[in-house]
Backbone:
């Protein structure tokens, strides 16, 4: 069922746009190579779910092209969805039916359904097939949905905020399972969340999205390498120079904090040469990088 | 792939909603049993119960099967499966119309048997009985179409209100048509041109409503 995608991109969005009355998705370019986990991070209302619905063929884009496993969407959504496992935060199973009924239902559709793996997941997630969905907790429902998605052995997993509202133990169990899934190098995952910790834990690549625009997209390690916070002491009379790679400087009296999105040791040297003292060069967490990136992007748009 | 996904979706609906279908059939059977009792009171009580059973299921099935699926957020689960919007629409209409047709046909056949074999009413009552029984089927298709296309409880409630408040009025007008009532006590069923025109109009409106539903669904650019 998988289409031909010689460039080995599981997902390729090119210039995708979608206009609503109060929101628009603008010129989205996104590439997820096969075998990679892409984390899509954005604040609430950034456009993560709309992007995901477009690549699932559930929302038709106004412009641009969406290719999923080599299939143009939404035209070939049926063919593409045979190999996609999709779970979203707003997805619910039938309350009056048991998990076992849902497993039989999915098994009757998908030839790749792995019964042994489904049983293993039941055990790992602490679920019981005979239990009705209405009796499950939120965490158990998320795990049940994920079981139904994973046991069909999809080539691409598209997960829209799957860990929202989960306790730390349930989150850990789900993230561990996703990491295990990636032992098969042919699989790919697109994982959207506003929880940067979850994304940082499992992603190879990260894309930041805000107000309908992709503001940055690169390898996770590259983000962590390139972003730094420099704590400076600025004597009176000294003016900090504008340096390339510094996206934000906040000064309060003699103390200043500069944020670099393309850090090289020469930046610190340049500040020292200007007469300032570099007290510390700190690594940033993904959450700090995300917030700084969003603020910088909004300032650029508003300027 | 094992069979068509559309087929699995239809079967799924029948499994989930088997209880209301069985309850309607039981309610209809009770109505016909009362009907058989004989006498004017039994006739009125049985007829009212019979139509109420059909109207209730015509109103409730689209809510159970279509509106709740969207309201209870089951739709993203279904649309994650390898189906298109039109395949989902086909499955939903076939399953929902089928779910209504099962008790409707059973009750219509039982009513005809009571007239034809048991002689509960003269055969002349067959055309007007069928015309009256067709209305809940037409109304059901209208409510189901509105529920699918409207995507909200509001639209399906509005369609239900329009239908349910129209039945009495339409039945009243139908029973005022001399071409139908004049032959009502005839020992044989008389299909006058008027009776045929009304019955044909009811029949034709069903594919028209369902066709319009498909057309409007096919034009949607957002589905979930």
Residues:
């Amino acid at each position: 069922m998988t289409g031909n995608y010689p460039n080995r991109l599981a997902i390729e969005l090119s210039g995708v746009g979608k206009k609503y009355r109060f929101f628009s998705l603008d010129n989205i370019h996104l590439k997820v190579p096969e075998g990679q986990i892409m984390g899509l991070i954005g604040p609430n209302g950034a456009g993560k779910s709309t992007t995901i619905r477009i690549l699932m063929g559930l929302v038709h884009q106004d412009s641009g092209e969406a290719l999923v496993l080599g299939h143009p969407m939404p035209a070939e959504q049926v063919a593409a969805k045979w190999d996609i496992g999709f779970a979203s935060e707003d997805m619910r199973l039938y309350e009056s039916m048991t998990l076992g009924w849902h497993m039989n239902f999915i098994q009757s559709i998908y030839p790749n359904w792995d019964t042994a793996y489904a049983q293993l997941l039941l055990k790992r997630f602490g679920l019981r097939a005979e239990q009705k969905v209405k009796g499950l907790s939120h965490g158990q429902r998320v795990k049940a949905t994920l079981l139904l998605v994973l046991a069909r052995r999809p080539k691409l997993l598209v997960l829209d905020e799957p860990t929202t509202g989960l306790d730390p133990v349930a989150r850990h169990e789900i993230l561990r399972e996703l990491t295990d899934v990636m032992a098969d190098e042919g699989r790919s995952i697109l994982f959207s969340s506003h929880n940067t910790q979850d994304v940082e834990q499992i992603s190879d690549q990260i894309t930041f999205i805000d107000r309908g625009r992709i503001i940055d997209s690169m390898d996770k390690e590259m983000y962590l390498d390139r972003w730094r916070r420099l704590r400076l002491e600025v004597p009176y009379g000294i003016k900090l120079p504008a340096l390339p790679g510094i996206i934000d400087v906040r000064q309060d009296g003699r103390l200043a904090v500069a944020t670099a999105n393309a850090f090289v040791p020469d930046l610190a040297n340049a500040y020292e040469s200007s007469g300032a003292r570099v007290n510390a060069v700190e690594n940033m967490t993904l959450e700090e990088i995300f917030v700084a990136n969003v603020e910088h992007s909004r300032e650029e748009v508003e300027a | 792939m094992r069979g068509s996904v559309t087929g699995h979706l239809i079967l799924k609906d029948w499994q989930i909603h088997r209880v209301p279908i069985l309850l309607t059939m039981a309610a209809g059977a009770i109505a016909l049993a009362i009907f058989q009792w004989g006498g004017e009171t039994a006739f009125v009580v049985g007829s009212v119960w019979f139509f109420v059973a059909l109207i209730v299921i015509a109103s409730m099935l689209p809510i159970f099967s279509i509106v709740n699926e969207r309201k209870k957020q089951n739709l993203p689960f279904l649309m994650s499966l390898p189906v298109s919007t039109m395949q989902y629409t086909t499955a939903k209409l076939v399953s929902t119309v089928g779910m209504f047709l099962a008790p409707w046909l059973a009750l219509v056949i039982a009513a005809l048997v009571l007239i034809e074999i048991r002689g509960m009413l003269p055969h002349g009552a067959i055309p007007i009985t069928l015309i009256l029984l067709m209305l809940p089927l037409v109304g059901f298709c209208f409510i189901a179409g509105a529920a699918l296309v409207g995507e909200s409880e509001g639209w399906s409630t509005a369609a239900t209100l329009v239908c349910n408040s129209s039945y009495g009025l339409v039945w009243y007008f139908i029973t005022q048509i001399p071409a139908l009532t004049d032959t009502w006590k005839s020992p044989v069923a008389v299909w006058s041109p008027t009776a045929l025109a009304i019955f044909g109009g009811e029949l034709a409106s069903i594919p028209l409503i369902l066709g319009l539903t498909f057309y409007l669904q096919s034009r949607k650019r957002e589905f979930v």
